[in-house]
Write a structure and sequence with these properties.
Elements (H helix, E strand, L loop, with lengths): L7 H31 L5 H24 L6 H28 L2 H8 L2 H13 L5 H17 L9 H27 L4 H23 L7 H26 L4 H8 L2 H12 L6 H26 L1
Helix pairs in contact: 1-9, 1-11, 2-3, 2-8, 2-9, 3-7, 3-8, 4-7, 4-11, 5-7, 5-10, 6-12, 8-9
Length: 303
Amino acid sequence: MKTLSGNPLMHKERRLALIGACVVTFLWSSSYILVKIGLTELPPLTLVATRYLTASAILMPLAVIKERKTVKDAKTVMKLAFLGASGITLTQGLQCLGLFYLPAVTVTFVLNFTPIIVLVLSAIILKEKPTPIQIVGLGLVLTGAYLFFNTPLSTNNPTGVVITLISGITWATYLVSSRLLLIKENLKPLSTTAFSMAFGASLLAITAFSFEEVSKISLQSWSIILWLGIVNTALAFFIWNYSLQRIEAFEISILQNTMLIQIAFLSCIFLNEQLSTIKFVSIALVFIGVLLVQLRNLRIKSI
């Protein structure tokens, strides 16, 4: 595991990366609410496809102008295509389908087990083994997630659960593969984000427009699509990959678990869901678990 000892600039970059990742988790948490609203009018694949096509239309011109030389050969193109297929086409498409079948909080619960997959893949592929305190933090996060949903889950639709589980596996694959390209092959966050997203969005669009029909899109739905595409996707994914270049995949996946807390509160406000005492306790456990992983790791790397 690399250290940042004696390099104030790298300490500052790491702090900025952590802040950026936190901002992204909030944006993505709000996406769950906006997607649930959008699904009342739009089919799931069409919604996610138009969202990512919008983001690609913004990022691709910037990447072509500034970083096209970083994509040097066919091998790199294939790797970026794999990122797009795993992180965009499969992950985002399946998550949106999951939200179509299940409540947002149930989808979030299922995805809280993604760090376990990331942990295994990172240890095998990136040789980034977690410390004992990080394992404790992971345990607290998962315990909090379990307590939060101690009442029966909305698993009466097994199709939605299976779809969401698969999306968690493909997202873990995307996280580890992205970090491998960013730190081992020195690809830039902008080109990594833009080229992989363009490929993934194209596959989504082909699938959506082949199997779904849309008669009319209202102003509200267009507003949701544009906000999701520009802010919650184009900007958020660029910041995410910037952070992923400076934070280990396991750490950033744990940070992503705070979305459980954020979505719970957003669902309470916008979807009229209630929070019981046990849910507040579980939220505290998730926070403590994330802080153990992040603050302990910062202290060690500052020595």
